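As a representative case, we now present a protein record of this kind.
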Amino acid sequence: LQPARCFLRPRNKHNHLLKGFVHCAQCGMAMTPSIGGKRDHDGAPYRYYICVSVLKEGKDSPCRVRAVPALPLESAVIQF
């Protein structure tokens, strides 16, 4: 018998360090990782944390925070 093949994918493909920990400062909803369509000078996609209320309600969301760039947020937490 041959061992079964494993088809597991990495859960955090874009390395969002704070996935599951970040909440919106204004509305208190969770913030979920996302990547932008544009890429930086190295060709990597821009990463963000987006407020879940914005994802659910779109333009009707009362949240003013909307999205936060991942790199400065993660850097601030790492330095703390």
Notes: The two ends are 51 Å apart (CA to CA). The helical segments are 52-57, 70-79. The mean pLDDT is 85. Strands lie at 31-39, 45-51, 67-69.
